Fold this sequence. Notes:
Oligomer: homodimer
Number of helices of chain A: 4
Shape of chain A: globular
Strand content of chain A: 25-35%
Helix content of chain A: 25-40%
Number of strands of chain A: 9
Radius of gyration of chain A: 17 Å
Amino acid sequence: xxxxxxxxxxxxxYGWALQRLRTAKLRPTRQRLALARLLFxxxxxHVTAEVLHGEALTQGIRVSLATxxxxxxxxxxxxxxxxxxxxxxxTYFDTNVxxxxxxxxxxxxxxxxIPGSGIAVSGLPEAPEGCTQGRIDVIVRVNRRA
Amino acid sequence: xxxxxxxxxxxxxYGWALQRLRTAKLRPTRQRLALARLLFxxxxxHVTAEVLHGEALTQGIRVSLATxxxxxxxxxxxxxxxxxxxxxxxTYFDTNVxxxxxxxxxxxxxxxxIPGSGIAVSGLPEAPEGCTQGRIDVIVRVNRRA
DNA sequence: GTGATTGCAAATCTTTTGCACTAAA
DNA sequence: TTTAGTGCAAAAGATTTGCAATCAC
Lengths: 146, 146
């Protein structure tokens, strides 16, 4: 049994998912561990509940869709994931919780990260009366060329 | 019977909705005319299908929800409305089709326009390989202060 | 054990669809 | 007429919920 899984350029100890769940005060159940590994072991990704579920089943991980939804929301609350809204039809969860924005390819519902460094939104008025400013989402919609 | 309806600072001839529908090549039916008046007679607004439907019923306009959805999409295709996605739960339609962005008050699902003039997004990379850039949406999420 | 978590199936909610009926041109 | 548009009720999707069974501690 391998002791590490590769993550982009760096490696992550196998017990990494366990640590993250513990830190997030989420009981490391079989399902949550498996999902955490699916989500965080590779490069950054954008998943929908349906896609993640399919992936889990493919890899022989038995999880119900309800648990997928629960976990995605719990991970999001814990700051391990970020929700991205681009398309009324489905919700995307992004493993990249850092500062960045998105390209959205409308034809095939694909999201691509745009690193946040370098991007600036200027000329914004201040938040409306009685409101605190939160996250700024920039979505650049793009279309496949004919 | 008044001959004009007020629209912000300017006035609009009563037959205005009719004109818009004709121009958009949409048959001016009783329902579409009524909805066009509800949508375009006052200030710019952000409506959901449900809200528009309720409003129509309140004013004694008999329309089915299916027709509301049909009309909202037809108006959007005709460029009279613009769809705004901020919240996976429902779709908003904006009567302001000009260049602008939005504040979104998460607590109560309210959208506010931010005039586009003056706002600039700098540092964007070019669209991904084989793609043409479309609209850029900037959503500033804000929260009610305690 | 005990309380948190899971799975299932049913429920909910928004949006879409099929089709007979009605109205505009 | 002729064809587009409407309403209804059913269907479709995505997501949530209730609750008994199961698991982590």
